Amino acid sequence: MDCIFCKIVQGEIPSKKVYESELVVAFEDINKVAPVHVLVIPKAHYDSLMEIPVSETELIVELIHAIQEVARVTGVAETGFRVLTNKGRSAGQSVFHQHFHVIGGRDLDIKLG
Ligand code: 5GP
Ligand code: ZN
User: Fold this and answer.
1) Measuring CA to CA, which residue among 79, 72, 81 is closest to residue 34?
2) Could you give the number of structural domains in the chain?
3) Is the pTM value of this prediction over 0.90?
4) Nearest bound ligand to the CA of residue 43
5) Domain for residue 17, yes or no?
6) For residues 5 and 99, is the Cβ–Cβ distance under 8 A?
7) What is the pLDDT of residue 92?
8) Nearest-CA neighbor of 106 among 67, 76, 71?
9) Exposed/middle/buried for 101, CB within 10 Å: 0-12, 13-18, 19+?
10) pLDDT by residue (tens digit) across 45-56?
11) Which of 47, 80, 93, 104 satisfies CB 3.0 to 4.6 Å to 36 for a cystine?
């Protein structure tokens, strides 16, 4: 499949890895919007959040754990950070392999939409 993030998982495209577990990997966004901007993704391909079956409990737990670990290793766990995911056209999703943005390291705008 021609997916940038699958290629990052396979090591075919380089990335600055921040955290990795059996089912999940986290790496720096190539176009950071803040000093800390990390993408947390399942290694398996899902087009978006909507395709992750809720029965995949191990994966879902690892995703939450990965977000916590990323916040710790990047130093934003105490200062604060934002987690967001864009699903589909209206939200401006541009890479169709599910990813959570973890953003922090500066005071963020309150604006959400
Ligand atoms: P979306 O717009 O889908 O929510 O977010 C996609 C994110 O992926 C963007 O923030 C973009 O900068 C990032 N991105 C796109 N291509 C690459 C890449 O090849 N490497 C990395 N590390 N990030 C990428
Ligand atoms: Zn993919």
Assistant:
1) 81
2) 1
3) yes
4) 2
5) yes
6) yes
7) 95
8) 76
9) middle
10) 999 999 999 999
11) 104
* pLDDT higher than 80, residue 112: no
pLDDT in tens, 5-25: 999 999 999 999 999 999 999
Residues having CB within 6 Å of any atom of ligand 1: 4, 13, 15, 27-31, 86, 92-95
Is residue 45 annotated as part of the catalytic site, yes or no?
no
Specify if 85 maps to a domain: yes
Amino acid in position 100: F
CATH number of the CATH domain containing 56:
3.30.428.10
Residue-wise DSSP of 5-49? HHHHHHTSS---EEEE-SSEEEEE-SS-SSSEEEEEEESS--SSG
